[in-house]
Amino acid sequence: MREAGISAYYIEISDLNRDGFLDVLVPNELGRTASFWINPGKSIFDTPSKLIRQVVTTSGFRINDVRARDFTGDGKVDILTANWESSTISLFAGNGDGTFGVERLMEGGKHCVFFAVGDFDRDDDLDFAVTHWTEDFVSVFLNDGRGHFRPRSDYTTALGNYGVVAFDANGDHTLDLVTANYRHRSISVMVGRGNGTFKPAVTVRRSFQQIVGGFVHERPIE
After folding, report:
1. CB 108 within 8 A of CB 83
2. CA separation for the pair 92, 77 (Å, rounded)
3. pLDDT tens digits, residue range 11-60?
4. Which range among 2-6, 63-67, 77-81, 201-205 shows the weakest confidence by mean pLDDT?
5. Model-level pTM?
6. What is the per-residue DSSP string for 130-198?
7. What is the DSSP string of 14-82?
8. Average pLDDT over residues 76-89
9. CA distances from 62 to 66, 116, 170, 189 (A)
């Protein structure tokens, strides 16, 4: 067992130092760090003494999500964090050897929590969307190809969007966004236009079975 930092609850894996082995990252939700461990190149279970916890430290607080992708377009893996209490997003450019540069801080929108990463405008670099668990909008950030992002564009969803995925939901070869809105008990679907913008959300609420007087009735959740 390895010490992982305060309130570690989500795992991301990626090859942070380009040695062909997958490394491990976790966000520390009650702090200002994302922790990572460089794989020593053999089974991590056979060489636990070589697993040394390292961190990137954000100026934001309460890191809810972390993603390891090449956002800067240089072939090196970078680290992106959602700092929900400070409503900011941090990007640390990777050096390719398991170390990272200084923080690039972005305003993320109130209580930003989870990411979906993808090429929303089909320009061959990675953009991202982020949800806001106390709010009724999801934010989209478009990349200039070097890890610099335009000011966010917000799209209305139902209240309390939390989880988000980016995939081609309608088969038109363009990424769409789907959010899970836990406060509203619904999902919102935003169809992508392929240029980094999305159509207004369509929100669907589930129904549930309510037992009244011995009979089962189906009705929408209110």
Report:
1. yes
2. 9
3. 999 999 999 999 999 998 878 999 999 988 866 656 666 778 899 999 98
4. 2-6
5. 0.88
6. EEETTSSEEEEE-B-SSS-BPPPEEEE-SSSEEEEEEE-SSSSSS-EEEEEETTTTEEEEE-B-SSS-B
7. E-TTSSSS-EEEEEBTTSSEEEEE---SS-TTT-GGG--EEEEE-SSS-EEEEEEE--SSSSS-EEEEE
8. 96
9. 11, 19, 35, 28
Return the bridge partners of 202, or none: 189
Q: What letter represents residue 220's amino acid?
A: P
Q: What residue type is 167 in one-letter code?
A: F
DSSP-assigned beta bridge partners for residue 176: 167
Percent of the chain with pLDDT over 70: 84
More confident residue, 175 or 39: 175
Alpha-carbon dihedral angle through residues 153, 82, 65, 134, given to the nearest 10 degrees:
-70
* Alpha-carbon radius of gyration of the chain: 19
Query: What is the Cα–Cα distance from 151 to 121, expressed in whole angstroms?
Result: 15
Say how far apart CA 109 and CA 152 lie, in whole Å. 8
Q: Is the pLDDT of residue 207 over 70?
A: no
**What's the CA gap between 121 and 141, in Å, rounded?**
11
The answer to whether residues 10 and 30 touch, using CB atoms and an 8 Å cutoff, is no
Mean pLDDT of the chain: 88
d(CA 134, CA 16): 33
Q: How far apart are CA 11 and CA 18, in angstroms?
A: 19
Residue 180 tokens, joined: 């899970």
